[in-house]
Design a protein that fits this description.
single chain; about 270 residues; alpha+beta; 5-stranded antiparallel sheet; 6 helices
Length: about 270
Amino acid sequence: MNRITSRIRNSLAIKVIFSTVLLSLAVTGVTGSALNSQLSAGIKEVNLNTALIEARSTIFTAEYRFLLAQGEKDSVVQKVVDDVISSATTLTANENAREVVFKRSPGNTRENNYEIASNLLDPTSIPATLSERVRKTPDLVYQYTNMNYLTGTRVKGLAIGQKVQIPNAGQYEMYIIFSLANQEKTLDLISRSLFLTGFVLLLLVGLITWLVVRQVVKPVREAAAIATEFTAGDFGKRLKVESQDEISTLGLAFNEMAESIEKQIARL
């Protein structure tokens, strides 16, 4: 460890490359984090708006069918409930993306019970806070939750609910729960892509910095080596000047100084 630290301290090239890569890492991290946050927020907002539209349409259709079933037998009402669940869980843009839950509202003591959750979904997947909000407002209410299945499967989801009236059974709460599995996969893909892009970018920055520093440090090292020999009394070596940039100008001045010193020594 001490050898590595000593080498970093004694090498201008390593210092420049290390500081450049470190600063690039900070900039890339901040930029990538901000970009990831914006993309994630955008995807979540689009999915939420789409889910609200689908839930509103599904619950409106269910209310209309329940209204048409007023005065019908319990078997007819049961069939309507089954049809609502079947259509809501199959007619969707994403495969296996929705589940339906019917919960009896507190105070509903009707004999008929239509409480049900589709596809072995655990009814406790509906948060108590969401259920309370649904009972207090006639509008759609949503909350992010976990879809817990009786089979042990657990998926992140979005629950959207509203009050409905079921014929011969009173007030119920109807919930449409959207799986966020595809959204999570998309967000994970974006995060991994941004990380990979940032890693490649850092490698390119390090490589470019190394190439630039190499062009600058090489003549500086040669000048340092020749200067060391000057201190030992050897003034015969010269720097190679192959261009007209600032370092070459410095090299010419260095060579002229060496020739001047050599001439003065020859006169003595």
